[in-house]
Amino acid sequence: MRRFIIRRLLQSLLLVWAIMSLTFLLVNIAPGGPEVVLTQNPKLTREQVEAIRVSYGLDKPLYEQYVTWMSRIAVFDFGRSYTNPRPASQLVVERISATAQLGLASYLIGMLGIPLGIYAARRRGKLGDNVVRVITVIGSCMPVWWISLMVIIILANTVKWFPQGEGTGGIGPWFLHLMIPAALLSTGVLISFTRFVRAETLEVLSQDYVRTAVAKGLPGKEVNRWHVFRNSLIPVVTLLGYLLPALVSGAIITEQIFQWPGMGRLFFQAASSRDMPVLLCILYIGTILTVIGTLLADIGYGLVDPRVRYD
Amino acid sequence: MSQTGTQLPTTPGNSSITSRRKSQARGFFASGFARFFSSKLNVVALIIFVIISFICYSSGWIGDNILHQNRDEIDFNLLSEGLQPPVGPGVGGHVLGTDELGRDLLVRVLAGGQVSLSVGFLAALFSVVLGTTLGLVAGYFGGKIDDAVNALVQIIFNVPSLFLLIILSLFFKPDILSLSIIIGALSWPGGTRQIRGQVLSLRNREYVDATRVMGASNFRILFVHILPNVISTMLVVAGFDVVGAMLTESGLSFLGFGISVPIPSWGNMLSDSQLYITGAPWMVYAPAMAFFVTVLCVYLIADGLRDAFDPRLRDR
Fold this sequence. Notes:
heterodimer, A: 311 residues, mainly alpha, 16 helices, 0% strand, B: 316 residues, MetI-like fold, 14 helices, elongated
């Protein structure tokens, strides 16, 4: 197990390196290059453009830039923002807390899918199950931004109010301003959990050991708790990891719609002003989170399911 | 499915055998599609989807001949009649009203559908072709090639794709083709994994050994003998790829990094309408409903195909 974890850790590092190298290449071979925003200004003279390129180190050959860039992002240094004199990483870091609040809240709400999935599986084919299934199918076809737009339109046309930005003035407004975007962001997670848990519970319910347990005369509650529930949660562990990045990318859209001052909104603003250091810094964080999510899923799976053998 | 190499002489006895076998058992695909069409929901979804696509792709003709409005044409009659666009449904001959510039909303919704559907299907096409080819090659040859493909799959799986899509869209002004290629290039690994798994078991079947003994090349074995066995998987993967690509495209366009104006797509129409949610909510309703119904239909079709071709997954 320890060897497996070490090997997976090394693989993850390699993955982050590969993704960031690929991004560096894509950004630099693209027409205009990363500095396109700086050099677009028609008032600049040729010499001034050159001076800007030198000050950002963009005049050096590509491989040299690559080596400096890689050694700098290893210590989380993305250079100055193009639109703000402060370092890009600093701008990003101060937005993390807001995004984490939103992500955590929506993750918790999304976990309601676990009981929902178990409920649906146990009432298979009955009304409750069918309602849950219709909801998951419809929900799969409604992206976060679509539902958010619908909710906003309903709120705006009925109570003439919808949450924008962070709630100020006490715990009540804060909670309301957090919970509405979080609930909307959680829909994808909620649906994934519901579907997975339902499928897995059905699978476990058809296993021989469940039949044996029932045949031995164990009460239904005992069987459900010790034989069904525990086994049906195995995929949930992997899902917990895999869904981590979905929240980060979902946050771009949700934060933009609700003006939530997090990393996603910063990414949107940086993209609008082509602020490459900030964009790459957030992409870096997103990549690391995704890789960690996959890693946690793999390791967690081994911890929960004793049948999984490494090596 | 695949034809036998040698033509058997058609003697009366032989033909009666074939006809008897036909009546007893249908082929894999025939029975799969029969299962698909046996569900009313699938049929309804397919019919609605075909109608929507047909109307969307003939939006140019409909605009010219029925509505007498063009996609980008601004109706100046409204201003001369003292109306300030956006006007509501039914005003000035606009069935669904107009947008903030006075362009007919119905024509734009239909044209937008054409764009959204095109991106969805083109991206799915790229994704499936790439994913299948790599899956076939990785599963069949194994070894170093398999490792390389797996590494690529891992990389793409771990890229936060929405972030990368937005960054890339800053460099390439996205149009239907480039957006489809980029979305397709980021969504193929799911299909590759499934197809690779199938090929791993198929390549050791006796019929593949027999073909090899008869001197068939690897290329022939892969594309003539193994490919037909994974087509049903491709179909299912493609269905869900269309849904995924449509969701991605509309999300990107909604943020302003996808298809850009004046070309309408359901995503960027909804983005524009955000400013008018209280004043002119019809600008939201039309594209939002069209988008939802279309994606739902494609999803139901994909789901139905999966149930039909992979019965193990039914009720899941």
